[in-house]
Amino acid sequence: MICKLCLEEKQLLKKSHIIPDFMHRGLRDEDNKFFLINIEDYSKSEKKYTGEFESDILCQECDNKIIGQYETYANKILYGGKINQGENIEFQNQKNQSGLISTCVKGVDYKKFKLFLLSLLWRSSISSRKFYGQISLGPHEENIRKMILSGNPGNQMDYPCFISTYLNNKDKLSPDFICQPIRVKNSDGTKYIFLIGGFVYIFFISKHNIPDWLPECVINDSDKISIPHMSKEMGADMLNYFLGIKMF
Question: What is the sign of the dihedral through the CA atoms of 119, 123, 124 and 125?
């Protein structure tokens, strides 16, 4: 069978995560389950032991050696995985004039982290799982496949991803959700939004009408990224929007 990343005929894995396993960490309850939220019909949301898998999409080399290395690195940036000697990654909370707190991460490997983000978006697009039904990249899917395979992260504004978090309010807003990713199209163009364990990822697909503030926040070739902390009210509005009910 043909691997969807390298396009070579190889033996394919029977189990490939669409959302990486490390992003499920900390989401499981006392029964070792977490919530997968169906935004189209909340009644169909469910607790699961594992995430969304798909078989026969990637070979072992592409899954483990190419995408796997980017997942290992992203775990350090997002969830405090072990930082090796020589990796000068610094985390610093900053407050702007409006009182908004952001975590500024310096020393981020632009290539590794950007390609991790692109791999999350790309895998969701190639998946046949209904959970990812709103993610359809069209011609961008092939562009991103080539970027991942060749190790080319592109420039800062090629498929930029804005990341924010409400984990500073996790005592009031539950982080125990992975919500069905959604497509939004408005004056800023097409965006895909993921909510995973207290983090929100917004991928900007269209290059026109990019918000002025975006380049200051997304991962850039200066090896820096800024992750804003949502207020309790902002986090509640976002969660209620995804859930389709007023839960918070």
Answer: positive
Q: Is the pLDDT of residue 10 over 80?
A: yes
Global confidence as pTM: 0.86
Domain boundaries, the chain: 16-243
- φ/ψ of 150, rounded to 5, equals -90, -5
Q: For residue 178, what are the β-bridge partners?
A: 36, 196
Strands 34-37 vs 46-48: parallel, antiparallel or unpaired: antiparallel
| Model pLDDT, residue 52 | 66
Give the closest residue to 194 by CA, choosing from 19, 57, 15: 19
Helix residue ranges, H only, 153-245? 232-243
Arithmetic mean of pLDDT, 227-238: 84
Q: Kindly report the backbone phi and psi dihedral angles of residue 119, in degrees, each rounded to the nearest multiple of 5, phi listed first.
A: -65, -35
Q: Is 58 left (phi over 0), alpha (psi -120 to 50) or beta?
A: beta
Distance CA 93, CA 139 (A): 38
d(CA 166, CA 236): 9
**Residues present in the chain in total:** 248
Contact partners, residue 211, CB within 8 Å, separation at least 6: 188
Query: Contact 148/118 with Cβ under 8 angstroms?
Result: yes
Nearest residue to 194 via CA among 209, 211, 208, 177: 177
B/e letters for 165-189, b = 16+ CB within 10 Å, e = fewer, are bbbbbeeebebebbbbbbeeeeebe
